[in-house]
Design goal:
The chain is mostly beta strands. It has no helices and 11 strands. The model has no long low-confidence stretch (mean pLDDT about 95).
Length: about 120
């Protein structure tokens, strides 16, 4: 499956952004999907994940209560709604898909999309 992330940009602290991850090439509902982020010099960090049907969601501690992951299998797209953004949310955000597991760690990913830059200014 090919993944295309979009929606990044520059926003002030306290603002919101919505990222999209569009999939093509395979049956999208066969894949659980996650979002990860990475800043220079640091390891890629788990942000959020969603199950194949969308019935279960998972979040990293740093984004709980602020970010919401959702999916529309009819549109082959997963979304990450990011509210109350903080400067420390600045990173390149990557979407990822896995056929057999919920992708909550870097090692549990079959496919990666390219990143989209999110910059939060103070």
């Amino acid at each position: 499956v090919q993944l295309q992330a979009s929606g990044g940009g520059l926003v002030q602290a306290g603002g919101s952004l919505r990222l999209s991850c569009a999939a093509s090439g395979r049956t999208f509902s066969n894949y659980a999907v996650g979002w990860f982020r990475q800043t220079p010099g640091k390891e890629r960090e788990f942000v959020a994940a969603i199950s194949w049907s969308g019935s279960s969601t998972y979040y990293g501690d740093s984004v709980k209560g602020r970010f919401t992951i959702s999916r529309d299998n009819a549109k082959n797209t997963v979304y990450l709604q990011m509210n109350s953004l903080k400067v420390e949310d600045t990173a390149v955000y990557y979407c990822a898909a896995d056929y057999s597991r919920i992708p909550i760690s870097v090692g549990e990913v079959d496919y990666w999309g390219q990143g989209t830059q999110v910059t939060v200014s103070s």
